[in-house]
User: What shape does this take?
Amino acid sequence: MSTVLLLVITGLGLGALYFLVASGLSLIYGLMGVLNFAHGSFLTIAAFIGWEVGRRVSDGTWWGLLISALVGMIVGAVVAAATEYFLIRRLYERHIEQALITVGLGLATVALFEGIWGTDPIYTAKPEWLSQTTEILGAKIPNDRFLLIACAALVLVGIVLFLQRTRYGLIIRAGVENRSMVTALGIDVRRSFTIVFAIGGAAAGLGGVLASVYYGYVSAHLGSVLLIFAFIVTVIGGLGSLTGAAIASVLVAVLQQFANYYWGAGDFVVVIALAAVLLIRPRGLMGKVA
Amino acid sequence: MSEPILVIEGLNGRIAGQQVVEDVSFEVPASGVTALLGRNGVGKTSTIKSILGLIDRSGSVRLGGARIDRLPTHRIVQHGVGYVPEDREIFGSLSVAENLRLAERDQRPRRELIERLFPDIHARRAQRAGTLSGGQQQMVSLARALVNENRLLLVDEPTKGLAPKIVDEVAVALAEAAATVPILLVEQNLHVIRKLADRVVVLSGGRVVFTGSASDLLDDDARIQRYLGVHDAADDAPAAAPNDDAPAAAHPAAPMASIAESTEEPR
Assistant: This one.
């Protein structure tokens, strides 16, 4: 029982990370039809700069972590918005070029990060409580999982409130359904594109800082590793569906944890799950019918 | 006579590289309803979309004397062009109120007018628009255009697939709108055209083949047959109409005297 509980909560923590990356991917694809292969780079640069600032302010403390998270979100948002504004905006409706430029950006930035911060992981300090465990029904749960779950839940609630309660949220929901009709109502939908990129980048940035807490290090490949699973989650959840991304994040991460523990084949099982969803329900759990 | 609100000269439109509007020129007066007519597939909807910049286009489009053909769609609409698209294109996942709120551009949107013209829609403002019947969806689409003070309305087949009772309601709403704003109306139903239109522009093969007063065309059966491929069945019994209580997708088109494909080409 305690093992099952440990695997479930650890899975939820990992799922929280996946969701922070996948939420942006899903929103961006839903509104703009852009498969953003550079999304992992937003996460990585946010993790590095968040860590750099946080450790200078107060290394290994809650205050330092909070600063890291805020800086990470801002860096993620700014880099993502700049990417949309300077690179993607000229390529809407040109999907092959979009894929090429975002893949290229993803590869180039990894090389850039390696040039700046080196190829080896840099181990990070975190508040003492996050290194400890809490016993629940006999299972010793690493405390950092609770932080990840709480942050992802806050991000989910924040994005939902933004989408439901603000005019830009309304424009984004309508744009996901019929972008050209939103334009025909006199709305500059491209401004929403930048905002969606910024929101996705901020979530990925927070994910980057929390990933450094979860894994205990930052590295140039942090974003690339998480991006693969975030894409899987986005496809399983249904491209463009935020709720689908949230559900799929939890399902994939928990499945991965169980498969890793019992068979040592977590990644393989996730890929099989992706193949099964694509064969049985190609639009994903909550995606739109094509 | 006042200056026309819309002047189109040498308008060309393309979809996926295919020319669908060819050297179209006409004017829309600053008041009343101008009907844009023609058989199926002659480029009426494409002309409307070209004016709005929703498809690739070239040529000159002037709104109140100012060129708008180089502006993006949202800027054209912000200049005071309301659009009611073919097939409604309401946002099905949003509520009726959200559909209307999204369309509001003015500081003081005309909510009272919408409430008065479309009481049924007002009563259903919390309902998801995708669950409305076809007629109700059309009312939402019209309401989105009428909620703002516009200088011109582009209305594309507003009665398509609607029951006669709903067609009448749409015509009443358009007639009321036409009292304050000029309308360029694409319509297949000759009864509606007869009721609303002051002038007509007829397209064939992507080109303008007739321009004149509505009576010049509608009072001449030979012209109607030649340009539109139908006879005006104004006195005929209406064809069986669909039940408008069904969801939108279930409606077959059943206009009364509608413009359809014909084997006879215009001269």
